[in-house]
Amino acid sequence: MEKRFAGRLALVTGGAQGIGAGIAERFAEGGARIAICDIDADAARRTAERIGAAHGVEATGYRCDVSDRAQVEAMVDAITAAAGGVDVLVNNAGVTRDNLIHKMTDDDWDSVIDIHLKGSFLCIRAVQRGMVSRKYGRIVSLSSTSALGNRGQANYSAAKAGLQGMTRTLALELGPYGITVNAVAPGFIDTEMTRKSAERRGLDPDAYRAERAAAIPVRRVGVPRDVANLVCFLASDEASFVSGQIVYISGGPETRR
Questions:
Q1: Which of 109, 139, 143, 222 has the smallest CB count inside 10 Å?
Q2: Could you tell me the CA-to-CA distances from 68 to 73, 115, 130, 159 in Å, in that order?
């Protein structure tokens, strides 16, 4: 496989499992050095060790609460000291606290907004300093089809829509410094998180996955690799003229929501 990311360092937030781990592994296949951060330090280290060993690249795990400015800046400083700086940032860290508006608590709202939206802002602000000085950078944030609205997800939908506005704005601000800023907006992706979400609703995960697949034009649900492929394209030199874009990756419009 072509090592199109050789010499680059990719930081993936929330990269210990699921979509984030899939993205980190895809970058490693392309020869990138990997930094994974997660609120679960042990999981971040285990995933980094597995990916590094499997693909023969340098991979390091960090504990970081991306909603905490001091932790984000300390992590980016550590990566810069050890590896020379972040070339690619993937804002993937996130949580869900779904509920209808009359049941949604302040904490439900704050935790989702803080991790998805504030966390992405803090990470971008921290890494862009080095990117600007080097006149190179790739930033990709994970939005969602829920940005278009989804029942029971006022907090999540607002955060993911906010990421889209921030993406377009920062593409304008950072473009003159050789930095592209894009977002991908996945639809239903089969992960441990979506399976647990189905279980919390009293649904069989396999039956729920099949139901969702039947409503998707390509007749299957997405997997982390699908998202990883798109993220890596947007972070590649082939996409150097692509910036300020929101790319939906959902197998086509679902016929039901």
A1: 109
A2: 9, 9, 20, 17
pTM, entire model: 0.95
- Interatomic CA distance for residues 170 and 174, integer angstroms: 6
Catalytic residue among 156, 177, 208, 248, which?
156
243: CB partners within 8 A, 6+ apart: 171, 175, 180, 181, 182
Largest Cα–Cα distance in the chain? 52
What pLDDT digit, counting tens, does each position of 1-55 carry?
Answer: 579 999 999 999 999 999 999 999 999 999 999 999 999 999 999 999 999 999 9
Report CA dihedral (69, 75, 76, 77) to the nearest 10 degrees: 100
Q: Is 156 designated active site?
A: yes
Q: DSSP letters along 90-141, please?
A: EE-------B-TTT--HHHHHHHIIIIIIHHHHHHHHHHHHHHHHT-EEEEE
The number of residues making up the chain comes to 257
The SS3 call for residue 40 is coil
Angle at 199 between CA 195 and CA 201, to 5 degrees: 120
